[in-house]
Amino acid sequence: MILAIETSCDETCAAVVEGSHIRSSIVASQAALHRRYGGVVPEIASRRHLELVGPAVREALEQAGVTFADLRAVAVTAGPGLIGALLVGVSAAKAYAYAAGLPLIPVDHLHGHVASLFLEPAPLQPPFLCLLASGGHTLLLDVQDHVRFSVLGQSLDDAAGEAFDKGARLLGLGYPGGPAIERAAAGGDPTAVPLPVAMAGRDGLDLSFSGLKTALRTRLADGAYAPADLAASYQAAIVASLVTRTRRALEQTGARRLGVVGGVAANTSLRGALDALCADCGIELRCAPLALCGDNAAMIGAAGEHLEFVEFPDYLAIDAHPRSAVMAN
Ligand code: KG4
Ligand code: ZN
Fold it and tell me: Does domain 2-114+294-328 have CATH number 3.30.420.40?
């Protein structure tokens, strides 16, 4: 069993995983704390992580019905993310590992998102194509095995989740933007407002969302559209952009399986559109379970299972890093 800790952004998470089985997964969201600022305030996030990480770990062990003596290792997100927030998790993980005499496993947050597909109820076996859409990243990945990926395409500017968040702010819908836009879009007409489906460099697999946000601002200034129609059309444009790129990646790679992960993977409209795409192409589709789309520590433990364990004192040199090391290839 592995104890995992995740504090890269505004959720303080701890989990105990055993292979693909989740024994416990605690997610203490700070969203309410950041809402009034319209986004995550890094310093506030770090301080809150400091308060919550101990209780989250205790709760994870308790719910799993285990003690430190039952564990093989402590896994922790070392990056990418907010540096102060990451440092709280990494320092806590080192302390727990040292006190319990366990090795430490530094995990890349994006690797973690991919690994949310390695967990129950239906673990997905690599190789597969993976669409990772979160608040910080939008990537199309060729997942070769449990630890090796290559980046086929990525957003050249805003991430898909960031597009949702910025759009929600423009529409006055609050934070986090994805769920807010999804709710506001429910009664709207996705074809009512003309918005561009952005394609960065038509031939490749890269994406772009910043132009879409600008277009929304312009349409909003027109003053001619109902809020629900604006939200529905904006959501539809993001989804269309993701689905078009994913279709092309499937065609180019000949992949037979598609995995979808990250906060944006919780979007019902995106899940539906990818479902239709995969039914059309005869592709096996696996979206991460809703509880594992957003940030959580179970996925960090799942990634850790396949990585090298670092022993004392070597792990003391492990540092938090704001950018992804795994995805640099
Ligand atoms: O993976 P995640 O929890 O954190 C990062 O690693 O960034 O993703 C958070 C992002 C936010 O931008 C949030 O607005 C978006 O995921 N998100 C959604 C939905 N739920 C969360 N976007 C669209 N529809 C949703 N239902
Ligand atoms: Zn994330």
Answer: yes
